[in-house]
Amino acid sequence: MIALFPLNIVLFPDGPLPLRIFETRYVDMVRRCMRESQTFGVVLIREGGEVGPAETFDVGTLAKIVDFHQLSDGLLGLSCVGGQRFRIRSRSRQADGLNLGEVDYLTVTRGSRSCWTASCRSWARSTRGSPCAWTMPRGSVTVSPKSCRFR
């Protein structure tokens, strides 16, 4: 089981993700991730908001915390980077409201690790009309949608 962090953005492998943490359930999640060297899953919100209940898509990306600091407003600031992609097999919710997921990890077959670009195009088509900002890594490479597949 991994902790799931629903956002209105898509995180891609190797992509940067700055976060401002203010909800207790996510402060506890960060503490656990740091203490146990764990990652958490970032999933795009399909319906709802970042604060409160939200329905998410089934595919997400692991996020690794690479740095943290106190922001000028006193909140916890995180610098994260995207890792492996996953598909949620089952979901549950802790008493504090933290979403958890049992996941299957997706692997890239054919092409280079920059094949997420093709998946990005496919995802963009499938979520057309959804409000989202794309978080993409520096130096992204354009590839044909047929050059990689996730399984």
Describe this protein's structure.
- This protein is an alpha+beta fold.
- It has one domain: LON domain-like (Archaeosine Trna-guanine Transglycosylase, Chain: A, domain 4, Roll), CATH 2.30.130.40.
- It is 16% helix and 48% strand.
- It contains two helices and ten strands; from the N terminus they run E-E-E-H-E-E-E-E-E-H-E-E.
- The strands form three sheets. Strands 1-4-5-6-7 form a five-stranded mixed barrel. It has a two-stranded parallel sheet with strand order 2-9.
- The chain is globular.
- The model is unreliable at 129-151 (pLDDT under 50).
Concise structural overview:
With 151 residues, the chain is of the alpha+beta class. It has two helices and ten strands.
Provide tags for this entry.
151 residues, Archaeosine Trna-guanine Transglycosylase, Chain: A, domain 4, 2 helices, disordered C terminus
Domain tally: 1
Instruction: List the strand order in the largest sheet.
Output: 1-4-5-6-7
Question: Which CATH C-level class is it?
Answer: Mainly Beta
Give a short account of the largest sheet.
Answer: 5 strands, mixed, barrel
Q: How many separate helices? A: 2
The averaged pLDDT comes out at 80
The helix content, as a percent range, equals: 10-25%
Subunit arrangement of the protein: single chain
- Please give the CATH architecture: Roll
Considering the protein shown, what is the CATH homologous superfamily? LON domain-like
